[in-house]
């Protein structure tokens, strides 16, 4: 709405009852919501209605599925953050979503409080992580992290990290030279109380996958990158170069 300062959320899901329930929660939490039952209608409306600040996107829908909608969004509105909101909790789907450029991936079975926190983090309404530096910037050797803009710079070049990946790098850099446990890294990226993965220690699989993606993004810019070291069975460390 013109003149409305509340963030505008686009909700794209073919389940009408789910849309109704989630829309009510989002409005109560202070958001404005526009909803669509399929990807084609959403994409058609994108150019002629108010521009959303964030998209909540279902994976399995008739016609275009969520990944296909996300692919088109990367062309139409590459800066528009997408959170996949789906019943498909397997890691392969999360990997595909994040590799495709999604800002986050949340299972529908998680409570609304978790989703609300993820939305506010992505929209910059709350700090990314409780491990954040007192300053807006962390500088560790060749690494610069800007907490306000969620930008990571390595050797003068921007690293294209998602919000979750940035939070994990920030957690590591904030304790550079010290080991950071799997649980702490997971909480930094996902928020305390969030759980995903099979079994009590399923979060370890998610952290390993995230660190693998993060290393890959740094190595795309610098093939010699080796600052993130593993402490087997415990977690990871941002290595500090001395000399």
Task: Itemize the secondary structure elements and their pairings.
Layout: E1 8-12, H1 16-28, E2 32-36, H2 39-46, E3 54-57, H3 66-76, E4 82-86, H4 91-99, E5 104-107, H5 112-122, E6 137-140, E7 143-146, E8 151-154, E9 157-159, H6 163-173, E10 179-181, H7 182-190, H8 202-221, E11 228-231, E12 235-238
Parallel strand pairs: 1-2, 1-3, 3-4, 4-5
Antiparallel strand pairs: 6-7, 7-8, 8-9, 10-12, 11-12
Helix pairs in contact: 6-7, 6-8, 7-8
- Count of DSSP H/I helices: 8
Q: How many E-type strands?
A: 12
Strand content: 15-25%
Biggest β-sheet description: 5 strands, parallel
Distance between the termini: 56 Å
Structural class: alpha/beta
Helix-strand sequence: EHEHEHEHEHEEEEHEHHEE
Rg for CA atoms: 18 Å
Low-confidence parts lasting 5 or more residues at pLDDT below 50?
A: 126-134
| Mean pLDDT across every amino acid position | 82
Q: What percent of the residues sit in helical stretches (DSSP H or I)?
A: 25-40%
Order of strands across the biggest sheet? 2-1-3-4-5
Globally, the shape reads: elongated
List descriptors.
alpha/beta, four-stranded antiparallel β-sheet, 8 helices, 243 residues
Report what the structure shows.
The radius of gyration is 18 Å and the shape is elongated. Helices cover 38% and strands 20% of the residues. A hairpin with a 4-residue loop joins β7 and β8 (151-154). The protein contains eight helices and twelve strands. α6 (163-173) crosses α7 and α6 crosses α8. It has 243 residues and is of the alpha/beta class.
């Amino acid at each position: 709405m013109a003149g409305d300062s509340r963030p505008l959320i686009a909700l794209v899901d073919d389940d009408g009852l789910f849309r109704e329930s989630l829309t009510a929660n989002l409005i109560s939490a202070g958001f404005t919501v526009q909803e669509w039952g399929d990807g084609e209608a959403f994409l058609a409306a994108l150019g002629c209605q108010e521009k959303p600040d964030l998209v909540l996107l279902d994976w399995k829908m008739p016609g275009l599925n969520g990944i296909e909608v996300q692919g088109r969004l990367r062309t139409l509105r590459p800066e528009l953050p997408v959170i996949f909101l789906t019943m498909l909790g397997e890691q392969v789907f999360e990997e595909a979503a994040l590799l495709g450029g999604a800002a986050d991936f949340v299972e529908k079975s998680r409570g609304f409080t978790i989703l609300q926190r993820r939305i506010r983090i992505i929209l910059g309404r709350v700090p990314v992580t409780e491990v954040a530096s007192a300053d807006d910037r962390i500088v560790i050797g060749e690494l610069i992290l800007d907490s306000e803009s969620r930008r990571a710079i390595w050797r003068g070049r921007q690293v294209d990290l998602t919000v979750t990946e940035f939070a994990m790098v920030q957690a590591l850099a904030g304790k550079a030279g010290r080991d950071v446990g799997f649980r702490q890294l997971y909480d930094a990226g996902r928020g305390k109380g969030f759980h995903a993965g099979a079994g009590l220690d399923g979060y370890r699989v998610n952290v390993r996958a995230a660190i693998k993606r993060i290393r890959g993004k740094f190595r795309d810019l610098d093939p010699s990158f080796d600052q993130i070291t593993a402490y087997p069975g415990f977690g990871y460390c941002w290595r500090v170069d001395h000399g």
